[in-house]
Write a structure and sequence with these properties.
Layout (H helix, E strand, L loop, with lengths): L1 E4 L2 E4 L10 H5 L2 E9 L2 E2 L2 H14 L10 H12 L6 E8 L18 E8 L9 E7 L14 H12 L4 E6 L2 E5 L3 E6 L2 E4 L10 H12 L4 E3 L2 E2 L8 E6 L3 E8 L2 E2 L7 H16 L4
Parallel strand pairs: 7-8, 7-15, 11-12
Antiparallel strand pairs: 1-2, 1-6, 3-4, 3-5, 5-6, 8-9, 9-13, 10-11, 10-14, 14-15, 15-16
Bound molecules: pyridoxal-5'-phosphate.
Length: 282
């Protein structure tokens, strides 16, 4: 598999990362996951903007922003992949610094770049999942797409061990987002999702879903969802770049409704698919 590492297209096995890379030692870096439909990067500018915000928050000076898009298409071409649905992983760290020291190196201008592309299935599963709740033990800058993902890894592993598909973070009684998804609740045909803040990642799918709902007359409330009001809602779903929209059919031991994906959730997913198929985002 051909990947991009720093300035070169290499076979994966040829990539050599220094043990003194600050990504390896401090998780001092950021990442993005983007997907393609019809072979084209979906909402690329939104992902680029979020990547830039994450880099700025970490004060990483990144000189290669302008070549990312062409580099990704070049990786796809060089791999001769079949199909046109791909998941793209971009990781940028502050780079190598020696000797080991917490503060930034004096020469803070040599970040490490890694980009890989993986073929994926075209349409996400419409089958519902079980979710569990997890007390949020992450830091206060969840708006940064940091590679420091240990809390998310532990929460998602906990979900798997409980036979669930996702863990939803709770902070101060509010349901915020999943370990790697945004979280949504539906009541009387209207939709709720946590407001943007330092406590959630500004999901690109979240943004697209809000647009799609606005365009199809479904009211969206970017307002807090209280854990103790969960019984007031009819449906739930989670969203993310590769998972798109996944209905929630069970919370802990409680089956939601008749245990099948909700009608509004299915409707929103259909509108989302229509938007993707319209190619107006290209
Ligand atoms: C914590 C968190 N929230 C939400 C999302 C969904 O973001 P997006 O729709 O941009 O994939 C992700 C994706 O990785 C995430 O890690």
């Amino acid at each position: 598999m051909i990947v991009f590492f720093n300035d070169k297209f290499l076979e994966l096995e040829e990539v050599k990362i220094s043990p003194f890379d600050r990504g390896f030692q401090y998780a001092d870096g950021v990442y993005e996951v983007i997907r393609t439909y019809f072979g084209k990067l979906f909402r690329f500018q939104d992902h680029l903007e979020r990547l830039k915000n994450s880099l700025d928050a970490l004060k990483i000076n990144y000189p290669k922003m302008d070549i990312l898009e062409s580099t990704i298409y070049e990786i796809i071409k060089k791999n001769n992949f079949i199909g046109d649905n791909f998941s793209v992983y971009i990781q940028i760290t502050r780079g190598v610094s020696y000797p080991r020291k917490h503060s930034f190196p004096k020469d803070n201008t040599n970040p490490t770049t890694f980009i890989s592309v993986t073929p994926i299935e075209k349409i996400s599963k419409q089958k519902g999942i079980k979710i569990i709740f997890e007390n949020d033990f992450r830091w206060q800058r969840c708006d940064i797409k940091s590679i420091s993902l240990l809390a998310s890894v532990l929460a998602n592993q906990h979900a798997v061990e409980e036979g669930a598909g996702e863990a939803i973070w709770i902070r101060d009684g509010y349901l915020l987002e999943g370990s790697h998804t945004n979280f949504w609740a539906v009541k009387n045909g209207e939709v709720w999702t946590a407001p943007l803040s330092n406590l959630i990642l500004p999901g690109v799918s979240r943004k697209v879903i809000i647009e799609v709902c606005n365009n199809s007359g479904i009211k969206v409330h970017e307002e807090p969802i209280k854990q103790n009001e969960i019984n007031l809602y009819d449906e739930f779903f989670v969203s993310g770049t590769t998972s798109e929209i996944i209905p929630v059919t069970q919370i802990n031991d409680d089956i939601i409704g008749d245990g099948k994906p909700g009608e509004i959730t299915k409707n929103i997913h259909a509108e989302f698919n229509k938007y993707v198929q319209s190619k107006t985002w290209m």
